[in-house]
Specification:
Elements lengths: L3 E2 L1 H17 L4 H17 L14 E4 L4 E10 L2 E11 L4 H5 L5
Parallel strand pairs: 1-4
Antiparallel strand pairs: 2-3, 3-4
Helix pairs in contact: 1-2
Length: 103
């Protein structure tokens, strides 16, 4: 089952594409490909990545160029489903951003 990408994560992905295309030395397609691989992996193995030490409600994965993906694994009709909450650069105030409401 494909992971669900929540609205804040979708907004984060737009910002990542913009920042990489305007300011990065790496094409945004490289990030996109890495993110697609990440989604394939957590669809098959949702518990693949470790719990985030500072907020164990989330699992955390490093995708590429210091961007972190935060997700949770939820039961959906007896199956595990990954829900991607945020995609954030590691230099940001991660804990305060994880506390925002999700849509």
């Amino acid at each position: 089952m494909k992971p669900k990408i929540l609205s804040l994560a979708r907004d984060d992905l737009k910002e990542v594409r913009y920042r990489l295309s305007e300011f990065g030395n790496v094409p945004p397609t490289r990030f996109r490909d890495s993110f697609a691989t990440f989604c394939d992996n957590i669809a098959k193995w949702p518990d693949m990545y470790p719990l985030y030490d500072l907020n164990p409600n989330y699992r955390r994965a490093v995708i590429i160029y210091d961007y972190l993906v935060f997700y949770q694994v939820e039961k959906d009709n007896g199956k595990n489903r990954a829900m991607v909450y945020r995609v954030l650069h590691g230099s940001r105030d991660i804990l305060s951003l994880l506390d925002k409401e999700y849509g």
